[in-house]
């Protein structure tokens, strides 16, 4: 019985050594894989972080630009309202001014200028003789 137990014990030790060798091989493969995979993965994560930071800065810049555009649109609307109010307030005065210009008697004005020229013309000729 002792011999049977010894054989079984030797067999169990043999299988334990085989399993330990396989486990050691697996551990070696895992370590080598980690050495090969981890540095590029860390670099990729750092690159992804840099891209996210850049995207965040771009979004902030776009948000600021949209705020500026909103302010500019508000300013344009205010200016438009002010111009409309100015035109409304001064429309009657402008209409009156245009009406006054239309009421000017240009024919009478031209005749008066011609009469003045006829009256002053001989005097101007006489004055030129004394020069």
Output the keywords.
mainly alpha; 2 helices; 96% helix; 131 residues
Q: What does this entry look like structurally?
A:
0% of the residues are buried. The protein is rod-shaped. It has helices at residues 2-103, 106-129. The longest helix is centred in the middle third of the chain and has 102 residues, at 2-103. It has 131 residues and is mainly α. 96% of the residues lie in helices and 0% in strands.
- The SS-based structural class is mainly alpha
Distance between the termini: 163 Å
Strand content: under 5%
How many strand units? 0
Count of helical regions? 2
- Oligomer type: single chain
The overall pLDDT average reads 88
Query: What is the global morphology?
Result: rod-shaped
Cα Rg? 52 Å
Largest sheet: none
Helix content: over 70%
Task: Write the element-wise H/E pattern from the N-terminal end onward.
Answer: HH
Poorly predicted regions are none
Would you spell out the secondary-structure blueprint of this structure?
Blueprint: H1 2-103, H2 106-129
Concise summary:
The chain is mainly alpha-helical.
